[in-house]
Design brief:
Radius of gyration of chain A: 13 Å
Number of strands of chain B: 12
Distance between the termini of chain B: 41 Å
Strand content of chain A: over 45%
Strand content of chain B: over 45%
Number of strands of chain A: 11
Oligomer: heterodimer
Largest interface: A-B, 26 and 24 residues
Distance between the termini of chain A: 37 Å
Shape of chain A: globular
Helix content of chain A: under 10%
Helix content of chain B: under 10%
Number of helices of chain B: 0
Number of helices of chain A: 0
Radius of gyration of chain B: 14 Å
């Protein structure tokens, strides 16, 4: 099976702009989660989607939003970008059946805000 | 709220020596525990997990971790490290029945030297 794919891999944006990141989960996986990784704050949970519904949400401002489509692909959007949004954004998918709670991560999208 | 503490930010070790990376967690409910590894410029790879059952879990590349409920620990060990084990290791916890929200520790950089 193909792994989790994320596009684009690298992105440079200017303060005030908005950005959309995409994640395609492993085939058959219904849960998609997003994480932000920065040197200062480490890995932080953004949100999780399951069957097109947001199931969990982290402590991020409303500028961060996401959605999931019927084919389980997910997008996250960040509006009004700030310099502090520069980070590696990781997407993870999970089968989420029975005890299959392990999450499989994509390579990430490196976002730089200038 | 759950939290994870990785006591060592960096662990240097010589090749073929044993290593232990420490992880302690706090949670008021039952938890699932994970170790992930991250190589430079890559996403996270699941190394091993504890969901239930035997408290000693092993990975295919020689790592093992033991869940100790009384000490709320999930330390990672390897009896003999290889240069290719150089990477950053993250301990993570999710609450049972809480979906796929992972709380990560700050990571331990393992540097294996010749």
């Amino acid at each position: 099976k193909a792994g989790v794919t994320q596009t684009p891999r690298y992105l440079i944006k200017t303060r005030g702009q908005q950005v959309t990141l995409s994640c395609s989960p492993i085939s058959g996986h219904r849960s998609v989660s997003w994480y932000q990784q920065t040197p200062g704050q480490g890995l932080q949970f953004l949100f999780e989607y399951f069957s097109e519904t947001q199931r969990n949400k982290g402590n991020f401002p409303g500028r961060f939003s996401g959605r999931q489509f019927s084919n389980s692909r997910s997008e996250m959007n960040v509006s009004t970008l700030e310099l502090g949004d520069s980070a590696l954004y990781l997407c993870a998918s999970s089968l989420d059946e029975g005890q299959a709670y392990e999450q499989y991560f994509g390579p990430g999208t490196r976002l730089t805000v200038t | 709220a759950q939290s994870v503490t990785q006591l060592d930010s960096q662990v240097p070790v010589f090749e073929e020596a044993p290593v232990e990376l420490r992880c302690n967690y706090s949670s008021s409910v039952s938890v699932y525990l994970f170790w992930y590894v991250q190589y430079p410029n890559q996403g996270l790879q699941l190394l091993l997990k504890y969901l239930s059952g035997s408290t000693l879990v092993e990975s295919i590349n020689g790592f093992e971790a033991e869940f100790n409920k009384s000490q709320t620990s999930f330390h990672l060990r390897k009896p003999s490290v290889h240069i290719s084990d150089t990477a950053e290791y993250f301990c993570a916890v999710s609450e049972g029945g809480g979906g796929n929200k992972l709380t990560f520790g700050t990571g331990t950089q393992l540097k294996v030297e010749l």
